[in-house]
Amino acid sequence: MHQIYTFLFWKKLYSIEKLTPDLLITLGLREKNGKYTNAGALFAGENDYRGIDLVKFGDNINVMLDRAQIEKVSVLKLCQDALQKYRQYYQNEVIDGAYRRKNEQIPENAFREAIANAIVHRTWDVNAQIKVAMFDDRIEVTSPGGLPKGLSKEEYLAGQLSILRNPIIANIFFRLGLIEQFSTGIQRMLAAYADSKTQPQFSIFENSIKIVLPVVKMELQGVSEDANEVYSILQSAPLSSSHISQETSFSKNKVLNLLEELIQKGYVVKICNGRGTKYHRSK
Fold it and tell me: ∠ at Cα 71 (32, 163), nearest 5°?
């Protein structure tokens, strides 16, 4: 028999120590005859459903640095494990004086929405996984199943109409705060990129939907386009001018001039002096 995946989510949802049969029926996870519904199976700690195939690629798709196939587990664990992998590759902490600050190459809110959107809206009767492809410059999330019948591409992207393929999953995800509000996922992803030159891309096919979340590139005011390019490279951690020169087509002298431009505008700070000099974002 399936055992519902309790973890800490259920305590957050109802502040209870265990799930009673009546509560499972109310949530739509169990029938009155004692059998679990399809949604109940999806929330079980173990089930027979395909989950997520997550791959971190190197320079191209022929180089796989890491792969995690998260299958036959609760949809809540799918979210948790996918977020853990995201944080491993697209988040870090930068020491800023006496403080540590979190640096995100790709907004966590956007990635969480993309994964939740894929789980809530995919077709679960198709024997296929949600594909998460992680690259240095983007994440691609592809979910099985096109749009629900009666929902156009324009309505889907604008969030004008709520047609839920999996309403029970959507309801529980909403109660847990994994999604903020029905039909607002796309708009929330776009909002996470409000100040970025790069923007999410949405491809809708007959049997799948792909969301592409690029690395954020900020558009700084009052500096040159080349200075913007240097600033975009300083996303993860402090870097030396030599490293920045290798990442761009600029000479080391030009990089030093661009860094000075960014320092004068307050966008970049210099750490140490001499051979060990490095630069990082000030904000």
Answer: 60
